[in-house]
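We treat protein structure as text, and this decision shapes the records that our systems exchange. Below, we set out a record of this kind in full and without editing:

***
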Amino acid sequence: MHNGLNALTRRILGVVAIALALAANTASADYLFAFSNANEGVANNLTIDSSVRYSGVNQGWWSATFSNNASNPNYFVGLATEEDDENVIGEHLLNNFFIFDISNLSAPASSAVLNLQFFEAYSSTGAAILTYSLFDVSTNLALLNANTGTSLGIFNDLGSGTSYGSFSISTSHGFFDVVSLTLNSAGLADLNAAISGGAQQFAIGGMLTPTPVVDQHNSVPDSANTLVLFGLAAAGIWSLRNRKRAA
């Protein structure tokens, strides 16, 4: 899985990797779990009956148009806006994923609940509720967890296939709230099949539904310079927000 970077280094690199200015006044951003790089999976878990399985750093996001890297534990999902001095220069859809160790479980499980720390959400239309949908994952899990670069195929995989349920999530949750999402019968069946088949890990993909609309004029390929500039800007925003919360 991810390398052994210390927690602070992962957080800094995670913010640089996402390289997004996620300000609440951006015109078209719709997202859940923003600034989740501060979590590193401490609160995130799949509770299978009474067994709690934490994702740790085995989580992240993929985009077809925006590059990520393996040191980033952020599980942002939705439409992110890339800005330069308050001007929108790019919009990118991100789907997320979580991977859990199931190596010592024995089927059948009777329930499975995905618990995720909320962090922040935003709706450009002022919606009080955003719908977050979970799906099966067919991508090789080592490749998935590397979450480096861009991939239309992996992005699509995380938001398609067998549905594990759709969930209405309030955008007004608090930063440290945990949302609990119970996998439906199809999700439970896949989990039990994985356990019975001796699988070591089980993955869940997620996306916002319906898919937020990308402004094609703002959907531009990123560049190395843009990534660096916005990585530094995002890091500054992250630091400022956390200093304010600590005050």
